[in-house]
Amino acid sequence: MWIDTHCHLDAAEFDADREAVVQRALEAGVRQIVIPAVAAFDFDSVHELAHRHGFTYALGIHPLYVMQAREQDLTLLADRLRAWRDDPRLVAVGEIGLDFFVAGIDAQRQQQCYLAQLKLAREQGLPVLLHVRRSADQLLAGLRRIPATGGIAHAFNGSEQQAQSFWQLGFRLGFGGTLTFDRSLQIRRLAASMPAEALVLETDAPDIPPQWLYRTAAQRAAGETTRNEPAELPRIAQALAELRGWNLAQTAALTLANARAALPRLASVGFP
């Protein structure tokens, strides 16, 4: 049994066949999915999807959406967190964080939104799902200023020192499709060397496709497309198992326990 700790099931890429995507995931043994919001426009949709399918969700404003966000969006987030605070399917505040890779996003505005959401998470006693892209040190500085109750550093791609710092602050590290590429040397080293208790699995679907779904620039230019799905998680898990010298049963048990430790409300939610 697997938990996909980060899947944007509400994304437009799934509009045509979302029910089939869910069914394929269930048939593959993915029995729980965490659906993070990215902006105020999808707070209600991730809540509805989680309840419709027996999954879980997180609420937050993604750093790539802060330039579009209105001041009242943080107020709406606070209102939704309070309104749904007793909903066991609300497992975290997220996806929040900082992105210093994509150009044109005001760093100060990102920082303000990130810190404001850390405060909301602390007020509600919820862990956070962190977007980490060339921003690990700044994220860590924010966490030391406004401590969170743990969570997941999603799609982690930082250094070993940064990984250890997140782990020491009570965070697990999310590994997904990037792990399956032989050239992802640093990520694969971290997946192999970090404490077993620090690792959780995710797809970030429809994004970050694993190696077997990847399309080259030439293929994309020719019109070929690809879409990641939560059903790919067991095969991603096999790559982790091979790096660690585990069997799949061990990998499933460990990553399930780690996901529940990172997001405690998962333990009280049944599986569809």
How would you characterize the overall build of this protein?
By secondary structure, this protein is of the alpha/beta class. It has a single domain, classed as TIM Barrel (Alpha-Beta Barrel). The chain is about 40% helix and about 15% strand. It is built from 10 helices and 8 strands. The protein has helices at about 20-25, 45-55, 70-85, 105-125, 135-145, 160-170, 185-195, 215-220, 235-245, 250-260, and strands at about 1-5, 30-35, 55-60, 90-100, 130-135, 150-155, 170-175, 200. The protein has an 8-stranded parallel sheet. Helix 7 (about 185-195) links the parallel strand 7 and strand 8 (about 200). The relative contact order is 0.16. The model has no long low-confidence stretch (mean pLDDT about 95).
What topology, given as strand order, has the largest sheet?
1-2-3-4-5-6-7-8
What is the CATH homology-level superfamily?
A: Metal-dependent hydrolases
**Strand residue percentage:** 15-25%
Mean pLDDT, nearest integer?
Answer: 96
Structure summary, number of beta strands: 8
State the CATH topology.
TIM Barrel
Highest-level CATH class = Alpha Beta
The SSE order reads EHEHEHEHEHEHEHEHHH
- Which class do the helix and strand fractions yield? alpha/beta
Question: What would you say the CATH architecture is?
Answer: Alpha-Beta Barrel
Could you estimate the helical fraction of the residues in percent? 40-55%
Number of helices: 10
